[in-house]
Amino acid sequence: MRPRSLVLGAALAALFYMAPMAAHAANFVLINLDSAGEGFNDTTPAAPVGGNPGTTLGEQRLNVFRTACNIWGTILPSTVTIRVQASFDPLTPCDATGGVLGSAGAISMLSDFAGAPIANTWYSIALANKLAGTDLAPSTNDISAQFNSSVDNSTCLGSTSWYYGYDHAEGTNVDLLTVVLHEMGHGLGFQTFTNASNGQFANNRPDIFARNLFDRTFGLRWDQMTNAQRAASSTNTGNLVWDGTYVKNAAPLFLGPAAIVRIDSPSGIAGEKQFGTADFGGPMPQPSLSAEVVLVQDTTFPTTDGCETLVNAAQLSGKIALIDRGTCTFAQKAARAQAAGAVAVIIGNNVAGAAPQMTGSDPSITIPVVSITQNDDALIQDEISAGSTILATIGVDPTHLAGTDAEGRPRMYAPAPIEAGSSLSHWDVPETPDLLMEPFISSTLTSSVDLTQYAFVDIGWLTGVASVTAGGGTVAAPRAYSAPNPFRTAASIRFEMAQSGSAAVDVFDARGALVKRLPQTWRPAGVQTVEWDGVDSRGGRAPAGVYFWRVEAGGELQTGRMVRVQ
């Protein structure tokens, strides 16, 4: 069958940079679209930071890009070079409070090529090339990426700048390595080409990502739906999940117990609600707390924003305070409610969309603070106006995983209204700990590709998986990996040997320099484990940062990456 192709975008190539990779791992080439003196070519002097030895801004950016390519390359095997055109440019929107950090995606996609696992299905071009074993679109690049150069000046995110280290010690800055890993994930295939607004597949043909999406309300995968059903599913918050087997089985390795915000009564609005968390306040209670919800009233219009003296402070004691967003800071609202004796705070959004992630700082606030959507806030307030007593529960539910449905399938990001560039092609925000491919960056992220690598198994990037026991059960796992990851003192490298013989195990730093060659010994066939104690070949402690390991045994190479933290 003749392959079908669809070009999504293209640009002319400029300078080239080859990322050094271990043999048989995916190899990347950067097509540098920046002009002389800017972006990747910026000659502004910079001090080495966090393991990045670059001495100019442009060199440090290139080094971060190289490191991200190394990380993805050791996870995703391909004999076809992956060409990424990229640039640093001022991106909008971006102001003192927030903005776009970057964007990336596949330049083209193919279906019905030789080696395609599923007919009549789009595959991102890099994945299609991998599956075919040859470059199916040699005249075009594979991935297009942009990163926001304005982050390094005060007009965008205020005093916050890019952090160019490898050790994720960004503090109040933005970790570029995490952002590049995230955006590269999209370009490599963590994206759907479906029109979220009308539910129409590109050229009426599903992509492999969409074939893994399942809507719990309809009880159908996306490739089984009509356009209208997919359009409705695109904003069906909490009910759009990933249905791939490997992701579901591996979720217990990466996700903790679920935190919940649930309305218990009245029955007309009962159920778990989408919620956001705060940078301040106490942790989600465990066991959960349940209490009546009371709407705050203050002295100045709007009287429900909690920004002035509370006239119903006495009614808040031992209750959950409901407060409208706006006028004053999140922390100021919570502090007033806590002073009145509230045991928790729910802040209702004042605009349509997802429940906000709340910034701010106030160490004196010890009660949990969460946010809910404007729609849920309105439903609760309507019931209060009608005289109903609202009972709610906030806390940790150990019976299921964070951000998953009752069957353990992780939720996908499907806010209402649709958020262009974010909807559908991300994990949802309730997944905890935070995952690389969520729509918002988190300071807790490292160089781990976490649950996302299993989504790449589901869409066809990875084959030959083994299993690993976790939490009393057996789940799918990459054939070779290290654990714990990240690690502090030592990490165990796990790999397989098809036959007995000697195995060479080498550890490299993010630049590709050999750090340590572990003892080479004869080993029997089967699963092997070798420990690296974090010491380099000179006997010194290896610094915190990203490392790669390579095992050569029986003519076969197995590779992986690991992160050492302080």
What does this structure look like?
- The protein has 566 residues and is of the alpha+beta class.
- The protein has four domains: 4-187, no CATH class; 214-254 and 403-445, no CATH class; 259-400, Glucose Oxidase, domain 1; 480-564, Immunoglobulin-like (Sandwich).
- 16% of the residues lie in helices and 28% in strands.
- The chain contains nine helices and 30 strands.
- The strands form eight sheets. It has an eight-stranded mixed β-sheet with strand order 15-14-21-17-18-19-20-16, sandwiched between helices. Strands 2-3-4-8-5 form a five-stranded mixed β-sheet, with helices on one face. Strands 27-26-29-30 form a four-stranded antiparallel β-sheet, covered by helices on one side.
- Strand 22 and strand 23 (473-477) form a beta hairpin.
- Helix 1 packs across helix 3 and helix 5 packs antiparallel against helix 9 (452-459).
- The longest helix is centred in the first third of the chain and has 19 residues, at 57-75.
- It is globular and about 75 Å long.
- The termini are far apart.
Quick recap:
Helix content is 16%, strand content 28%. With 566 residues, it is an alpha+beta fold.
The N- to C-terminal Cα distance equals 54 Å
Query: Which whole number gives the mean pLDDT?
Result: 87
The number of domains is: 4
Which word captures the global form? Answer: globular
Structural class: alpha+beta
Characterize the main sheet: 8 strands, mixed
Q: How many strand units?
A: 30
Q: Helix content range of the residues, please? A: 10-25%
Alpha carbon gyration radius: 25 Å
How many helices? The count is: 9
Strand content: 25-35%
| Low-confidence parts | 4-23, 464-478
Strand order of the largest sheet: 15-14-21-17-18-19-20-16
